Structure prediction request, 76 residues.
Amino acid sequence: MERLIELLEDLNPEVDYETCTDLIDGHYLDSLAVLSLVADIEEEFDVVIPTVEVIPANFNSAQAIYNMIVRLQEEE
Prediction:
């Protein structure tokens, strides 16, 4: 989770990722940031994020993103 927070802070350091639950809905992450984040996550966590997983529910909070990463790692 700590490394994920670092990746998110590289995109937008002004957000409190520990508590924010509306990263997409609150427009803290735009579509380009999400695409960049997906690439970073795939490289850092050695997972493939299918297009169907790139939905607001999976990216609205650091915890949701982390849960998706863990789930994808378990599926491999």
Q: What stands out?
A: The two ends are 19 Å apart (CA to CA). Residues 58 and 67 are 8 Å apart (CA to CA).
